[in-house]
Design a protein that fits this description.
436 residues, alpha/beta, Rossmann fold, Dihydrodipicolinate Reductase, domain 2, 3 domains, 15 helices, 26% strand
């Protein structure tokens, strides 16, 4: 039986993990796929290092473009990253009639529509399980396992770096800056952690999940993104006292007015399973109309967890290689001619509850002034707690939890509150989700 020949682009952490797992579990993978899968060529700039890893098991070249044009190669695995040369290589591989497997969430979030259209035209598949939540098979679950359902919403902890930071801030009461340095020392955070801590990485992933959940094009440019760099340890402590945990969530919801697509710190009731996901782990909750809520949990990064997802795609592509393109699983779950142009709601129109912390003068009449501003904006208060000022202090923290409120009303109220003479400094606002 003719093997499926693979060209591997990039032998970094995930590439090396893929090579190792595929070699180690070759017999098991053959039994699942029905034919041998072998890496015949690796493209890596550091050829000496690549030869050390591969130990002569395949060819090693330093020119990735030669791999995507290699007649011997059936499937190309792109693990280079970025949206520059990676995009060129993927499109070239597709043009040459090769299936593509990628872990590149940024590439798909920003250029997925073009890439999937070209793959459809050429009758090849682009598989991307490893692009979202590492070793957690969330793409397959949403695209295939829940295909009987009308997906109502998805909410996920889909960035391990930020979850590690928030877990440490809560457990140890440390500041964001202190925990970030520790995360960098331990290797959980990059030297430049911007993509992680500012929510961009999570936004790439929720863009992809939104597309396969609702059958819409990928629309990264419409995601509302807010990271965790401005979070105060004080708010994490107060949230805990109120029975909530703060997590950076990627959220997408279907509403009558359109789809919500957003990433931001979120208060979640501590009794929810996802609120108790700690450290660098990932977890995604998917709400379907038939099945209800389902939870997917596991390692969202790392050499072998991500390699697990890459090789699962390899097995899937191998199984359906000879299938008629019209009878393969569609890239975005829905048939290409059945995608809908569901509008993405601007964040100002999103309806959610809010946590607000105000630093106020400890004097009579403060609550009356604040509640009057909120009433003017039709904002209903669910709970209100005043933290007693310390010895000799004349200022106190006031914590408000609101009922469901449209974002633009909260924004107007915050502007008015910050103009009150009794309010000191800026108002802190964090959105809340019950996920029930």
């Amino acid at each position: 039986m003719k093997p499926m020949n693979v060209g591997l682009l990039g032998l970094g952490t995930v590439g090396a993990g893929t090579f190792t797992v595929l070699s180690r579990n070759a017999e098991e993978i053959f039994r699942r796929a029905g034919r041998p899968i072998r890496i015949v060529v690796v493209a890596e700039k550091d050829v000496a290092r690549a030869n050390e890893i591969t130990q002569g098991a395949c060819r090693v070249v330093d020119d990735a473009f030669s791999v995507v044009s290699d007649a011997e190669v059936d499937i190309v695995i792109e693990l280079i990253g970025g949206c520059g040369v990676a995009k060129e290589l993927v499109l070239k591989a597709i043009a040459n009639g090769k299936h593509v497997i990628t872990a590149n969430k940024a590439l798909l979030a920003m250029h997925g529509n073009e890439i999937f259209a070209e793959a459809q035209k050429q009758g090849v598949t682009v598989a991307f399980e490893a692009a979202v939540a590492g070793g957690v098979p969330i793409v397959k679950a949403v695209r295939e396992g829940l295909s009987a359902n009308r997906i109502e919403w998805i909410a996920g902890i889909i960035n391990g770096t930020t979850n590690f930071i928030l877990s440490e801030m809560r457990d140890k009461g440390l500041s964001f800056d202190t925990v970030l340095k520790e995360a960098q020392r331990l290797g959980y955070a990059e030297a430049d952690p911007t993509f992680d801590i500012e929510g961009v990485d999570a936004a790439h992933k929720i863009t992809i999940l939104s597309a396969i959940a609702f059958g819409i094009p990928v629309q990264f440019d419409k995601v509302y993104i807010e990271g965790i760099s401005q979070l105060n340890a004080k708010d994490i402590k107060y949230a805990e006292q109120l029975g909530y945990r703060i997590k950076l969530l990627g959220i997408t919801k279907r509403t009558t007015a359109g789809a919500e697509l957003r990433v931001h710190p979120t208060l979640i009731p501590a009794k929810r399973l996802i609120a108790n996901v700690e450290g660098a782990m990932n977890a995604v909750v998917v709400q379907g109309d038939a099945v209800g809520a389902t939870l997917y949990y596991g390692k969202g990064a790392g050499a072998e967890p991500t390699a697990s997802a890459v090789i699962a795609d390899l097995v899937d592509v191998t199984r359906m290689h000879t299938a008629d393109p019209e009878h393969r699983v569609p890239h975005l779950a829905f048939q290409p001619d059945q995608l809908v142009d569901l509008p993405i709601l601007p964040i100002a129109e999103v309806l959610t509850c809010h946590y607000m912390r105000l630093r106020v003068q400890d004097e009579p009449g403060v609550l009356a002034n604040i509640t009057r501003v909120l009433a003017d904006e039709q904002i209903s208060i669910d709970a209100l707690i005043q933290i007693e000022p310390g010895e000799g202090e004349d200022e106190a923290d006031l914590i408000l939890l609101t009922h469901l409120t449209r974002e633009k009303r909260i924004n107007l109220a915050i502007v008015k509150l910050e103009k009150l003479s009794v309010v000191v400094g800026k108002v802190t606002r964090i959105r809340m989700e019950t996920l029930g």
